[in-house]
Design a protein that fits this description.
heterodimer; A: alpha/beta; Rossmann fold; 4-stranded parallel β-sheet; 4 strands; globular; B: alpha/beta; 5-stranded mixed β-sheet; 8 helices; binds iron/sulfur cluster; binds FE2/S2 (inorganic) cluster
């Protein structure tokens, strides 16, 4: 059986989530591996969400927000950019494959970009294979 | 070499003067422990307390972590070595204490020793500075002429590892953790109440000292200290199972310095890097 990665997508309500909607309404095809969670802004994302997602079995995490300068709350994604950059460095230094975590700016009108990013990211995670480092053994902890 | 005697005498003298004049309510410094090698954090509140003050090469505690125990506005004198002074600056930046409420008794110290290993504490496990960055009264002579080594030099070996090896290294280290939280307690920047790891809703991680919960605790703690850790090394010295937490903190500090151009706790007027941004920050940092 081929490996179907489980990818967590976290998208801000105003841009990326709407962009994902647009991808759907324009009937673009993209792999169904990304499960999207909607947050109000990319700055809502607590870095622990990302660590926790990997622990609970995500093979990859994709964060989407408005383009810098376009955040609905003006500066949310500017804070998020710094914060998530640190998250990335931490995962990397811990020894996780850097390719498993990605941040993309996708606007409400970029349905095609959303589809492309999902396609590309899914392919990349397939290449990397299942994420086993942070994933917890269910017997060890019931969350 | 630092004249520890002289510093101890000056410390007593200044503490006495400040308490007598009523300029401060408390002097945060070091007191006698059960032996020479184990001095303790000590808060002198009366003139009689001053006699118990000590200073020697084992006085590593970062007294800045005690600052937040006093009601807002309490006048406090605090003994501060190089890293401790950076912690104070960082706490002022974070509006946890006010500069005007503090009398900083600066201690230039070279040759501090780890009480467990007796090794000299230097840039391998700390920021490697010897003179306080900020002070009101200096208790000894400034130290000059020491070789300046980048605090990030020790990282080279770990950065060169491949990711599998690094993962194996950190996993084996984190697996040792007994979740005593001494690291958190020792850290001047770990002041949240409750700490995320003690929260029940949501419950971020398992509280048992097992691999996954340990990993979650530490990764998140490293993140919460990003751009804030001032590299005093106290967390690692406090750890009963000798986890080299300083390595990870140094790495995060290095990345922050490279990405945002600012080291933690160096200037009173700085803003901590993660509660700040520049419009021109590059998207390259996310690659
Ligand atoms: S994380 Fe460790 S080295 Fe950094 S400030 Fe806290 S105790 Fe000091
Ligand atoms: S001091 Fe060491 S053993 Fe205790 S919680 Fe921190 S890392 Fe774990
Ligand atoms: S609302 Fe989209 S990133 Fe802030």
């Amino acid at each position: 059986m081929s490996f179907e990665p489980k990818i967590l997508g976290i998208a801000c309500n105003w841009c990326t989530y709407t962009g994902a909607d647009l991808a759907g309404t324009t009937r673009l095809h993209y792999p169904p591996n990304v499960r999207v969670v909607r947050v109000m802004c990319s700055s809502r994302i607590n870095p622990s969400f990302i660590f926790r997602a990997f622990q609970l079995g995500a093979d990859g995490v994709l964060v989407g927000g408005c383009h810098p300068g376009d955040c609905h709350y003006n500066t949310g994604n500017l804070y998020a950019r710094r914060r998530l950059a640190v998250t990335k460095k931490i995962l990397e230094f811990a020894g996780l494959e850097p390719g498993r975590f990605r941040v993309e700016w996708i606007s409400a009108s970029e349905g095609n970009k959303f589809a492309e990013v999902v396609q590309e990211f899914t392919a990349q995670i397939k290449e990397l294979g299942p994420q086993q480092k942070l994933k917890i053994d269910e017997l060890q902890e019931k969350a | 070499m630092t004249d520890f005697r002289q510093i101890e005498n000056n410390l007593k003298k200044e503490a006495k003067r400040l308490l007598e004049a009523g300029e401060v309510a408390v002097v945060l410094a070091y007191g006698r422990g059960y032996d020479e090698k184990h001095p303790m954090p000590f808060a002198a509140k009366t003139i009689a307390d001053v006699e118990s003050l000590v200073f020697n090469e084992y006085c590593n505690f970062n007294m800045a972590s005690y600052l937040m125990r006093y009601p807002w506005g309490t006048k406090i004198a605090i003994a501060a070595k190089a890293a401790d002074s950076r912690a104070i600056i960082q706490l002022v930046q974070e509006e946890k204490v006010r500069r005007e409420d503090l009398v900083i008794l600066g201690i230039p110290a070279y040759g501090m020793k780890n009480q467990k290993t007796n090794e000299v504490v230097d840039s391998k496990t700390t920021g490697g500075l010897y003179n306080p960055v900020i002070y009101d009264i200096l208790l000894g002579e400034e130290i000059h002429g020491q070789k300046i080594v980048s605090p990030y030099e020790v990282l080279a070996e770990y950065e060169a590892m491949d990711k599998e090896e690094r993962w194996a290294f950190w996993k084996s280290q984190m697996d040792k953790c007994i979740r005593c939280y001494a690291c958190r307690k020792a850290c001047p920047m770990c002041y949240c109440d409750p700490c995320f790891i003690d929260q029940n809703k949501p419950r971020w991680a398992d509280k048992a000292p097992q691999s996954p919960g340990n990993m979650m605790y530490h990764l998140t703690r490293f993140h919460h200290l990003a751009g804030r850790c001032i590299d005093c090394g106290e967390c690692s010295r406090a750890c009963p199972v000798d986890i080299p937490l300083y390595l990870f903190h140094k790495k995060v500090a290095k990345e922050c310095e490279e990405m945002f151009g600012q080291a933690a706790g160096m200037k009173l007027e700085d803003k901590p890097v993660l509660v700040d941004f520049r419009v021109e920050d590059s998207d390259k940092i996310l690659e």
